[in-house]
Amino acid sequence: MDVDSEEAGRKRETHHGSEMAGGSRRTSKKISETTEWPSVIELMDASAKVSREKYMKRLVAKRNAENPDAAPLVLEELTEQQRTSLKEDDLAREFVLAEAYVASRMEEYSRVEELDPNQDNDDRVYQEDRERWGRKWAKEFGSFEDKTRIPAMCFTDDPMFHITRDLPTMQIFSVKVKEVHEKLQWALDVYGIIAVRDDIDHNRNVIFERTRDNCQTLDEQDPYLVLTGPARAPVMLFEPVRLDVMLKVTCTDKSEDKDLSLLVRRYECCESINYQVSHGELVANSCVGSKRFKSKLSTLELTCGIVVSSVEATISVRIVEGSWPDGFSGRFTASTACVSHMKVLLLNFGDGNVLVSADGTIELSRRVVSVESFGELRICAAAWRGSKQVDREVLFQPLKSGRSSQVLNVGVCKLEITVAWSLFPLSYPTRRIPSSKNG
After folding, report:
1. Which residues contact 433 (CB under 8 A, 6 or more apart)?
2. CATH number of the domain at 311-424, out of 3.40.190.10, 2.60.40.150, 3.40.50.720, 2.30.180.10?
3. Residue 435 above 50 pLDDT?
4. Which of 79, 126, 229, 287 is most buried, most CB within 10 Å of its CB?
């Protein structure tokens, strides 16, 4: 038997099992120790198709029930014009319901703001919101503490335009401990979690998380928390993003640790823009704002923005030639054309103490930002030692999918900046996504 014949025989055996005498076949069966689960994208795709048909079936049934004397509509016989008409009528009804919903939510949160400031209402309010979340979302999204299972770059390689688009998103710039209660004294060793929740999956999208044995020390000169998120861009599909904070301050004895901040609120950068978003209307302009939240023993100041018609940009930096200048501190930032005066801090390090993987990739503290689809992304690198400083930057035009790369030189260090672009899903899969331990 020649080499080609032997190779062909091996392929037949590998793909179809071993052939036996008389033409019978012994089929090999692969036994897997792990369960194969569909990916997030596959679930979203399948869910979207099923949801569209269920939605149309519901509209047909509603129309037939409202018009018993007219000839009944048949789902399979609908023209595109009839489908469009049904959707438009339903959207008009939903708009009226949305107005009532927004009004009720505004009343709910106004009651929270009117709580007696002389009493510690934080525990009660937080627990009530936690219970309300459980009643509304636990069945579909799991535990209150669960983190988002939707990763960044979800649609970088497959944009899936039938279930994705550019959307308004929240851009998080900084979190600052603005004030502390007189019971506390600077410096503070802070640990805990800060997360945001959007209406894509309602789970925690973590922007800060530290354990007690890895706390961050804050002082009056530098009261900013080092952010490590979001894991993906927070989407504003129907209503503003909600803030979830549980921060503590260490004491000598763990049992004496104090609650620094405990709150769950919605974040409104600009009331008119958030109102438009909650109604599903087009928002014309991006914005930036700061808002203070008093809770427990501190006041937190969040500086965030809304980026309209945005796409998600996931940034990576890799050293492709040379090395970071010895003894130089460094900083990487990102900014967008819509709010060019604001910068997202990707990484800040001192004296050349930067973590670099075996392939040259620099470990960024943050890597996900939002960019207007019609705007521009600017990534800057700065290196300094004493009075000597080098600043370099590159510009990227947003894409709806795929990756963009450019080279940036900082002294003798050549950096490759890569941006992975992705759109956002219009809905979450109705089937629960299993935890990573299952597959």
Report:
1. 37, 40, 43, 149
2. 2.60.40.150
3. no
4. 229
